[in-house]
Amino acid sequence: MTEVFSHLFEGTIWKMDVYEPTGLLAIEWRDNEGVPKFSVIHFSSGELAIDAISYGDRWWTLAAITSKHLLLHHYPQANQAQTSGLVAIDIATGLVAWERFNLQFQEATKEGIAVKQGFSSNNKVAVLDEHTGTTSIAAVDLKNLGAYDRNIRPALPTNAMPPITLTKQAIIGPYFFLEHGIRQLWAYHVEKENGFRLNLAIIEGEEVIFNAGIIDHLNHLLPETFFIIDQQLFFIRNNKREIVSYFV
Question: CB of 127 within 8 A of CB of 113?
């Protein structure tokens, strides 16, 4: 594997979203006081588009990323599952492009940003123009709008076994498996003197072409091990403070 980039945040990674056509990866992370920060990475190069910007209070969180905007929405109460409020941050400048309050974000679509008004029980959504925040379609079924393929493919735990023996050590927890073209990717934990290590093995045909420790010094097993976007593999390590990418 060839490393593309690694980026260390001054806090804990919480959420991510991807807009694959322009190669943008949005990341929400929280500093040591729990204040949300937002960064956008060109994932094919590791170049930062915007880094560590803030908006509002701690209840603002990542909604989605589009070709030109980072969308944030707000939870007015900590115990409330419904959001209220939407803001668009211009990725080129890091500045607020527009704000709309009393709206519930639904989905970023090819026609625009789908929202609902307040706590409406109506199944119809309105569509906002991505660049201005104004309403371009007043009422439409969400299923009739064009969905973007976010295309983040995570490795999932499995009861299956790899076709080739990967280690003589005892495996702790399940294998995590993802098929990528003609390759099989298997992640697994082994016990070390100082905790656990996450290993990654890549099998092509009947040959193991890669098998090595990826994350060491773990205090517990990782419930999520890696994910793939296009031809790149991503790990979250250093206690969820660092994102690392490799070509596979």
Answer: yes
Q: Which residues of 2-14 are buried (b: 16+ CB within 10 A; e: fewer)?
A: eebbebebebbbe
C-alpha atoms less than 13 angstroms from C-alpha of 38 in its C-beta half-sphere: 29
Please report the domains of the chain, with CATH numbers, ordered by start residue: 2-144 (2.40.128.630), 156-225 (no CATH)
CA 84 – CA 74 distance, rounded (Å): 5
pLDDT at position 119: 61
Three-state SS at 144: helix
Question: 193-201 long-range CB contacts below 8 Å, 24 or more apart?
Answer: 195/219, 195/220, 196/172, 196/220, 196/221, 198/222, 198/225, 199/166, 199/167, 200/226, 201/162, 201/166
- Could you tell me the pLDDT band of residue 166, with boundaries at 50, 70 and 90? very high
d(CA 146, CA 157): 31
Rounded distance, CA 177 to CA 162, Å? 9
SS3 38: strand
Nearest to 246 by CA among 204, 221, 215: 215
Average pLDDT, the chain: 92
Cβ atoms of residues 246 and 237 within 8 Å: no
